[in-house]
Design goal:
alpha/beta; 9-stranded mixed sheet; globular; His_PPase_superfam; Multiple inositol polyphosphate phosphatase 1; bisphosphoglycerate 3-phosphatase activity; membrane; signal
Length: about 600
């Protein structure tokens, strides 16, 4: 059963805003980028190894697929002083803070590392198995800053523009309102469109065999998005890349006599649930207890503020000294909040425009001047900003608060249910008997389930699986730089823009491999929470397109489904989400939110 069907009551026709199945239209930029020219050969588009109609590259074989962003950005009509390509942007002389290094240390605002991703078909399928299903959980692509941030950027720029400082003449012409319009707050940027399109193209190449066996059909592929435009646009951009060159198998399209009778791209249905009801992708807003007891709780505030007090004041003093009218005169009086804003703008300049020659240049000056000892490394000082953000996320959305694991349990449940259906061959008969769009109750296996949410979607579910808390070393504000550099919870690597977790589901091809496995505990008995019969299959997890070991599955990337199912059940799959998230006032005398009660069924010590 799909995640949407599993919500039950949400499908009632009398609900004020039921599940919305929306057909997302591409943005104007993507239309221009993807539609073929009038002279394009339709047969070229229908082949899997076709040439992109605008970029003119063979998407199946050329390394240009790795990252087309510089070329895309060069084509934009609103290209400004900040939209510099990597070849034009040189880091400050004698600085160890290069553009490439900064790109990897911006926390959850880090750009996705397309340049490091391989473009190749799936070639390591286990012998005797075939890929039966692909389950993707993905963050939206690169977005604009929030409207409130954009307003703050404008105020800070106006404040600093009053000072004529050599080396920062760009401030006179830098226009926040053009680069970060208030009206685009949190919306997907053109770079974000490109992020998901590129990932979709690489997935189409990697999973070509799956697409050949299971072409697009609404009964075969399910798309789900958080009820935010940046997420639904990301879902659509991914679908454009994933299904590009593959016409629908609908009889009307197959028998069309004219190309005008069929769409040049594959439309897909995208399901959304209103904020506050979404228990998978925008989950924190559906959990009153998290909102009351965890969000901005004392532990989060204490750890972050304690750490910030160790490095922000020195940088503030240095930047204030830089923006002085004359030696000994009054300075710009830059505040700690201003320093945080400068880092924020630097991050978006790099993420959206690949530019480190404006606010990142200013931040370098503050970091270098704030070093009181020559032994202090510039990179360590810059990493303090990254660590500050990680401390916040570690306790707000990560393993720092055991309760946070609960917020991944519904996503784990739908994952487990979908895998079970894909591996159980007896369910395939339901697909043939499904009654199209009017049949909301039949269980059938999807071959692709693609879900698009937020940074916290990735972090909550990673915490549920304990992917980045295996050593049980808590992230604290008083650790050494060496300890920080060895931390497991590192959001720049875990959840950059367009971060993704893909579960490949493999089932036996022949009867040589047992179709069912019986799960038993160490004493040989079947656990109360474990189904006695489980379909045979193998699961592999890819994080940001790289294989990752699942805790509890041993040293093999391919994990037996029987083993993974038991891990999910012990961690809290099929927990009572509503009961656990019931709104309760936080205890008045608890100073440590790690003491927020953990829900029954969610084991904080599993694995």
């Amino acid at each position: 059963m799909s995640a949407m069907v599993a919500q039950g009551s949400l499908l009632s026709s009398h609900q004020p805003w039921p599940v919305l199945i929306v057909l997302i239209l591409p943005s104007l930029m993507l239309v221009l980028m993807l539609l073929p020219s009038p002279t394009a050969d339709a047969k070229t588009l229908s082949t899997q190894a076709g040439t992109h109609p605008r970029w003119g590259v063979d998407l199946m074989t050329k390394a240009d697929l790795i990252d087309q962003t510089p070329r895309l950005m060069d084509d934009l009509p609103w290209r400004t002083v900040s939209s510099l390509s990597s070849s034009e942007s040189a880091s400050a002389p004698n600085s160890t803070l290069s553009l490439d290094w900064i790109r990897k240390h911006l926390g959850t605002k880090s750009p996705y590392p397309h340049e490091s991703k391989r473009v190749s078909p799936l070639i390591d399928t286990p012998e005797g198995y075939e890929l039966s299903q692909l389950h993707l959980i993905c963050r939206h692509g690169t977005r604009y800053p929030s409207s409130s941030r954009a307003i703050a950027y404008q105020k800070l720029t106006k404040k600093l523009r009053e000072f004529d400082v050599p080396g920062f003449e760009w401030l006179r012409h830098w226009r926040s309102e053009d680069l970060y319009p208030i009206t685009k707050g949190n919306l997907l940027a053109a770079k974000g469109d490109s992020d998901l399109y590129q990932i979709g193209r690489r997935f189409a190449i990697r999973y070509k065999d799956l697409l050949d066996r299971y072409p697009y059909d609404a009964n075969t592929y399910e798309f789900q998005s958080s009820n935010k435009v940046r997420c639904s646009q990301s879902a659509y951009a991914f679908s454009l890349g994933y299904f590009e060159g593959r016409y629908t198998t609908d009889p009307g399209a197959v028998n069309a006599k004219d190309d005008m009778d069929r769409s040049p791209v594959q439309p897909v249905g995208i399901a959304t649930i209103p904020v506050g009801m979404d228990k998978e992708l925008a989950v924190k807003y559906a959990c009153p207890r998290w909102l009351e007891s965890v969000k901005d709780g004392p532990t989060v505030v204490h750890e972050t503020l304690t750490f910030n007090a160790q490095f922000l004041p020195k940088i503030r003093e240095q930047l204030s000294a830089i923006f002085s009218l004359d030696p000994g005169s009054a300075s710009a009086n830059i505040t700690v909040k201003d320093v945080e804003l400068i880092y924020s703008i630097c991050g978006f300049e790099v993420a959206l425009y690949n530019n480190d020659q404006t606010w990142c240049q200013l931040l370098r000056q503050g970091i270098e001047g704030a070093a009181v000892e020559k032994s202090e490394d510039q990179r360590s000082n810059f990493m303090n900003f990254e660590i500050s953000g990680d401390l916040d996320d570690y306790y707000s959305h990560g393993p720092g608060i055991p309760f946070n694991r609960h917020l991944g349990c519904v996503l784990a449940t739908t994952l487990g249910n979908s895998i079970e259906l894909a591996l159980d061959t007896t369910t395939e008969k339901f697909t043939a008997g499904r009654m199209g769009d009017d049949d909301d109750n039949s269980q059938h296996p999807f071959r692709g389930l693609f879900k698009f949410g937020h940074s916290e979607t990735i972090l909550f579910f990673s915490s549920f699986l304990r992917l980045y808390d295996q050593r049980r070393v808590p992230l604290k504000s008083n650790m050494t730089m060496e300890q920080y550099e060895q931390r497991e919870f590192w959001t720049s690597k875990i959840s950059p823009f367009a971060a993704n977790m893909a579960f490949e589901v493999y089932r036996p091809k022949t009867r040589d491999v047992p179709k069912k496995r019986r799960l038993a505990s160490k004493d040989g008995s079947t656990g109360a929470n474990v189904q006695p019969d489980t379909p045979s299959g193998l699961i592999r997890l890819l994080v940001n397109e790289e294989p990752m070991l699942i805790p509890g599955c041993g040293s093999a990337y391919f994990c037996e489904w029987a083993t993974l199912k038991k891990i999910l059940q012990q961690a809290g799959m099929k927990c009572d989400f509503d009961e656990c998230c019931t709104s309760l006032q936080p205890p008045k005398n608890i100073d440590d939110i790690s003491m927020v009660p953990v829900c029954l069924g969610v084991n904080p010590d599993v694995n």
